[in-house]
Structures are given as C-alpha cells and as structure tokens.
Amino acid sequence: MFITMTTPALTPFHQKIFPHAKSTKRDLFSAFYFLKFRIPHFAFPNQIPPFRPLRPLREQSAFTLIELLAVITIIGILAGLTLGAAGAVRRHGATSTAKAEVAALQAACDRFYADNNSYPSNSAVNPSSSFAPAAYTGAGQALFTNLLGSVTLSVAPTTKRYFEPKPAMVYTNGSPNYLIDPWGYAYGYNSDGTNAPLIWSTAGQTTGGANTNKWITSWPKM
User: pLDDT (tens digit, 9 = 90+) per residue, 55-75?
Assistant: First the structure.
C-alpha cells in the first residue's frame, strides 16, 4: 500500500503578501474622486460614487439669508456702540482741554495786570448778549496782541510775552491772529481794563440763544 503525499497549491506571491492588489485601481479611483469633489467617505461606503463633474456634492451647506441678516445686525449694533463711545471720549477730552486753556489765559491776564496795573481792555463782547463765537474775533485779537506782544504767532514779540500758546490754539489765517478753543472757535473775552476779565468758550455751540450751561468759563457758573 502506497501513500501519496500531495502538496497544497500555494497562493500566488502577489496575492499572499498584498491581498488588496485586485482592488487597487478601484480604490485609487475612489480616493481621487473623494478628494477632488470633497465627498465624505461615509456617503459611499461600499461603492464607487457616480461620476458627476458638474454637480459636486458639498459637505457643508451655505449660510441662510436669516443668518446673514442676524450677523449684519449684530455688527451694526456693535459699530454704533463703539462710535458713540468714541464721540463721548472726544467731547470729554475737548472739554478738559478748554478748561485748562481758559485757566491758563486767566493766569496770563493776571501776570499782565501785575506788570501794567490793568488788564487787556476790550468790552465789545458781552457774554450775557453775545452767544455766537463768530462775534468774538475782535475781542480775541485784542487778547492775542496784548498777551503775546505781536500780531501773529510767527512774528517776534515787541513787548513782554505773557502766554505761549500751542500752534493748534491759534487761528493764523488772518492778521492779527486770535486764540481758538478745541472746537475751532474764538474764545470770548470781556474786560474794561480794571475788573477781572471774563474768558469763555461756547463748547462748540454756534447759534444765538444757546444753552450757556454748557460753556466753559473763567467765572463760576451757578
């Protein structure tokens, strides 16, 4: 009795080591299509997706009109709040600057009085009747020439200079120059030469009969 030994057929070498070799072309095509058209893999787990070059599927949907309007509304509200706060800060800064300048002008007039036994004289403007800074030019020029000793800021003084203004405080498009407040309007000035002068700013108000409670003045307001 003979026993025949048979050897089982061996798996081809490329299939044994690389069992996925048969599906290589299919997998490469699927990967290329998924990457090109951004299709999630779970959309087609076991098959090649249909070839639709003109109708690519999208993973995320676009914003709706309501969502866009909501975002625009929120941005508008935030912008309004920011601009309003910035305007309030600018107004507060201008008011503080005007108060400091009025106090400095008052001190300069006191130094002028100490040397000359009189204040710069000009009674053409009265704060109780002249409410618009357009009428303050002449009085402002008288104050400028007496405190600075010259008709313009660029001309050397001929007398003692009692005040050194910043360039932004001087209106130079005319001769004589005059002093302006942070809003760009002339400072009001009134004095008969004997009594202490009245110096004020209308705080940006330009119309007659304006509310004087908003003015910045050298005298205490009730």
Answer: 555 555 667 888 888 888 888
